[in-house]
Design goal:
heterodimer; A: 0% strand; B: 2 domains; 20 helices; 2 strands; 74% helix
Chain lengths: 114, 510
């Protein structure tokens, strides 16, 4: 098994773990971490693709590397925004959960003037 | 490189306008941020006027040349460089968004205005900046010619839209914003994974180059499935719609109008772009039928749940869930036409008209609900007496927008459903026509319930809590009229949406 294939398989495993965590965990912070794990998997895959597509005498295809940096910056900002919202939610209610008092499909518990 | 491909890689006359369409809203946002306070509103309104003029100029350039408007950034050709392209579909969406954003801007002057002498508040400043940010990101989604630029544009759109949800800072809205953000992040990371797989398989992310290289094989199927699934989460198609109603109903009226009318169209447009322009040779009829089945479920579930809502804004939000369903019915219809060797333009036009009429109608409806809330101090559907006498123009606007959602002639919704139903009959997919008719019937029930209740006379001695400025009512009515009169698009001599699209069809390599 050569390097890029090994890294590709690792990337697939990371995406799988992250996706599982994002869907199964009810806590928002764990969901954010799950998103980051999927992100790491995607970036690792992109790195492996850059390595595989290397021209003769080059370490890697430079285009994926450039895109990869942008992707990391975007994922970082997304995480920062999510954590900021999470902290705000904690400050407001002292409780961090995504389950609202009134599930979206039922309106009976909605305060009339909210 | 074939001659038709290289012709797409030259900056055309008016190409610079595409750069301006993206740059002007973001520049306006930064200038507004620097000057702050009441100045942000003035900067935003000036930017709105400039942006509308740019959108019209791009439409003019497209109509004059009859070809897609192209700009090559820095003179670097794809696949190494990045191109901006505006074909008929992009230009129609650019114009729609410009018109709707301008309507919302006029409306929001009353809610988010900072008169001179009043201390500046945070919510108005953020609203104006984010309004411009949403606009710039949407324009980038419409004109990007590269799947990675589209990923960045989608993320910008999410980052601009999420804070709009929690503008008033209540715990409930912060929670909806976080839920929305998590759905959107899952969607964008799946989209990025699909884009990475495509780069690994075909070595380019430029749309025309990719369309020429992509073949029906496992890598393309996996990439298509991942990207479409991600975009569905962002568009809130059933069953990934759970984040939408609380997020859209909890935001201030002007922000709800932006989110429900425009933001979801960004990811839908991208799904359509991928389906028809990138993966035209990969998609199959069963895959398209699956998408439309989800759309049909969205229409039925969204409408039925909307009927059960007790609050007007939640009712309108669930109606959005249903209307998103219509946007996905066009996929099997267009694919069915293409499989039969016919031109799929009719189905695509039906879908585009549905998107445009929903953008205008839903923005008008949310803003009308905002005015009802200001007048009554609540938005309980059961207790809307007296609204029609206090806000006659608003109720008329709500009824006209509702007529467009139902699909009554001569509205845009009517023309859209007419086109889609005729294609459904032509391609022997009558079940989609049935879903559309049932959906229209359910929509008419809740629109009529709301309108009839507002027409009831007020209690004796009842007075509106606040008087609504006339221009706000006029802005709502103007958007509703846009949607209601959109059916006149049938008189348009040229098939505007198809300009510049045929080129990519002819470039498929043997």
């Amino acid at each position: 098994m050569n390097g890029p294939t090994l890294f590709g398989l690792c990337a697939a495993a990371l995406v799988g773990f992250g996706l599982y965590g994002l869907i199964v965990n009810p806590q928002p912070l764990r969901k954010i971490i799950g998103f980051n794990i999927i992100g790491s998997g995607v970036f690792l895959l992109f790195g492996a693709i850059a390595r595989r597509g290397a021209a003769v005498g080059m370490g890697g295809d430079p285009v994926p590397q450039a895109l990869l940096i942008t992707g990391i910056v975007v994922a970082f900002s997304a995480t920062a925004l999510a954590v900021a919202l999470l902290l705000r939610l904690f400050d407001e209610g002292g409780l961090v959960t995504l389950a609202s008092e009134a599930p979206p499909t039922k309106t009976t518990a909605d305060p009339p003037d909210a | 490189m074939s001659p038709s491909l290289s012709a797409q890689n030259l900056t055309t006359l008016g190409g610079l306008l595409l750069v301006l369409a993206i740059l002007v809203p973001f520049a306006g946002m930064l200038i507004g941020f620097v000057f702050g306070g009441g100045n942000a509103q003035r900067v935003a309104l000036a930017t709105l006027a400039a942006g509308l003029a740019i959108a019209i100029a791009i439409a003019n350039a497209l109509a004059q040349s009859g070809k897609a408007v192209v700009y090559i950034l820095g003179g670097w050709m794809p696949p190494l460089g990045v191109a901006l392209r505006a074909d008929g579909l992009s230009v129609v969406m650019l114009l729609t968004v410009a018109v709707v954003i301008c309507g919302i801007g006029v409306y929001a002057r009353a809610d988010f205005g900072t008169p001179s002498g009043v201390k500046e508040a945070r919510a108005p400043l953020i609203f104006w900046l984010l309004l411009l940010a949403v606009w710039g990101s949407l324009n980038l989604v419409f004109v990007s010619g590269d799947l990675f630029t589209l990923y960045v544009a989608l993320e910008l759109l999410t980052f601009a839209a999420v804070p709009l949800v929690s503008l008033d800072g209540r715990t409930e809205t912060v929670r909806s914003a976080l839920r929305y953000l998590l759905y959107a992040l899952l969607g964008s990371v799946l989209y990025l994974l699909g884009a990475v797989l495509l780069y690994g398989a075909y070595g380019t992310l430029d749309i025309p180059l990719l369309a020429a290289r992509v073949r029906p094989e496992p890598a393309a199927w996996a990439a298509l499935a991942l990207m479409i699934a991600g975009l569905l989460a962002k568009t809130a198609l059933f069953p990934l719609h759970l984040w939408l109603p609380p997020a859209h109903a909890g935001a201030p009226a002007a922000a709800s109008a932006v989110l429900s009318g425009l933001v979801i169209k960004g990811s839908w447009f991208l799904a359509m772009r991928l389906w028809f322009d990138v993966f035209a040779d990969v998609v199959t009829l069963p895959a398209a039928q699956t998408l439309a089945a989800l759309g049909a479920a969205a229409i039925l579930v969204g409408n039925v749940v909307a009927l059960r809502q007790t609050r007007l804004k939640l009712l309108i939000a669930y109606s959005t869930v249903a209307q998103i369903g219509y946007l996905f019915l066009m996929f099997p219809l267009a694919t069915g036409l293409a499989t039969a060797g016919l031109d799929s333009a009719m189905a695509v036009n039906g879908g585009m008209l549905q998107a445009i009429s929903h953008a205008t109608a839903k923005a008008a409806m949310f803003m009308a609900a905002g005015l009802v809330y200001t007048t009554l101090g609540h938005d309980r559907v059961a207790d809307l007496r007296g609204v029609a006498s206090a806000l006659p123009m608003t109720v008329l606007a709500f009824a006209l927008a509702g007529a467009s959602l139902i699909g009554l002639p001569p509205s845009g919704g009517f023309l859209a459903k007419w086109l889609l139903i005729s294609v459904a009959i032509t391609t022997a997919q009558w079940w989609w026509a049935l879903v559309m008719l049932v959906g229209g019937l359910l929509t008419s029930v809740y629109v009529f319930i709301v309108v009839v209740r507002t027409l009831a006379p007020a209690h004796v001695g009842w007075n509106p809590k606040t008087t609504v400025p006339r221009y706000q009512q006029a802005a709502v009515l103007a958007l509703a009229l846009c949607s209601f009169l959109l059916g006149a698009a049938v008189l348009c001599p040229v098939d505007v949406t198809q300009i510049g699209r045929t080129v990519s069809r002819n470039t498929v390599l043997p």
